[in-house]
Design a protein that fits this description.
Layout (H helix, E strand, L loop, with lengths): L1 H4 L3 H5 L5 H9 L6 H14 L2 H10 L1 H9 L8 H18 L8 H20 L9 H13 L8 H11 L3 H12 L13 H4 L3 H4 L7 H23 L3 H12 L6 H8 L3 H20 L1
Helix pairs in contact: 4-5, 6-7, 6-8, 7-8, 9-11, 10-11, 14-17, 15-17, 16-17
């Protein structure tokens, strides 16, 4: 494994620095025989040998490059896809059990693709196009089955739905997401009035955030509260208590509870409450 140790770390660990040099470097790392891989896997699994883990990762970096290239149609930087795939490879190496009787490359493909998938879904659009496991599956399969830029016919939608085990409406919804594009919230700085009004910032304006409207609403609330408390202060003590207990208290009292408190009938409490409310309404309306 001397060749892998002699490689420049900058090329191996950072494909973004110089992608061509990185690919050339990883392709120059010798492949492992089944016996070499088994020995390194046992050293890592039983002895937690980090150098064995490093050699397993290094020998399979070319495989990550190969997988990452199959995702070039998403418009994302190849170096970023490779970096994410490398993360998946390292996770696979950490979990690799040499006693399972499979080669590391077969075990690692799931982890590599899983990391690349998550990266694509996070970065393909500003708004995520797929959040559930079923939507993720539909996203990648629909892109591979969609042969043209035209919308799918009903027969094609039903065929895709049957193949992927989802409903036709889910296929239509995902197709709409795939064919959509991101839109800037604000209009371009050099846009004229005929273009500016089409930007979301124009028609999604939150008028409630207007400071003038917020101040007006706050003044109205303060005024109404002041009028209410002034009207309450003009009531006699018993009537004010009944209104407060029936309408303003966190745990509102019943008519029977207040009747027992003031040693009168529940009907009398209801009458006092009604008279007090009429007085409050009249005071506020004046």
């Amino acid at each position: 494994m001397s060749n892998s140790k002699a490689l420049q770390p900058a090329y191996v660990l950072s494909p973004g620095a110089n992608l061509d040099a990185y690919v050339q470097s990883v392709n120059s790392i010798p492949l492992l025989s089944a016996e070499q891989e088994q020995a390194l896997g046992e050293r890592l699994f039983y002895q937690q040998d980090l150098d064995a883990a490093r050699q397993l990762v290094m020998a399979h970096l070319r495989f990550v490059v190969h997988i990452a290239r199959s995702y070039s149609g998403y418009g994302l930087a190849q170096s970023d896809l490779i970096q994410e795939g490398n993360v998946g490879l390292m996770k696979a190496v950490k979990r690799f059990n040499p006693e399972m009787g499979v080669r590391l490359v077969s075990f690692a493909v799931h982890w590599i693709k899983a990391e690349i998938h998550e990266f694509v879904l996070r970065n393909w659009r500003i708004v995520k196009v797929a959040t559930t496991k079923a939507q993720r599956k539909l996203f990648f399969n629909l892109r591979s089955q969609k042969k043209s830029l035209q919308w799918l016919t009903n027969d094609e939608v039903n065929r895709v739905a049957d193949t992927l085990g989802v409903e036709a409406r889910e296929v239509r919804e995902m197709e709409s997401r795939l064919t959509g594009s991101d839109m800037a919230f604000d209009a371009p700085t050099d846009a004229d009035d005929d273009v500016a009004y089409q930007s979301p910032a124009y028609y999604l304006e939150d008028h409630s955030a207007d400071p003038a409207l917020q101040l007006e609403a706050a003044d109205t609330t303060d005024s109404e509260n002041a009028e209410l408390y002034q009207a309450l202060s003009n009531l006699d003590e018993r009537s004010r208590d009944i209104v407060e207990q029936r309408w303003l208290a966190e745990e509102k009292a019943t008519l029977h509870e207040l009747a027992a408190k003031y040693d009168v009938s529940a009907e009398r409490i209801r009458q006092l409450e009604k008279n007090a409310m009429n007085k409050i309404k009249a005071a506020i309306a004046a």
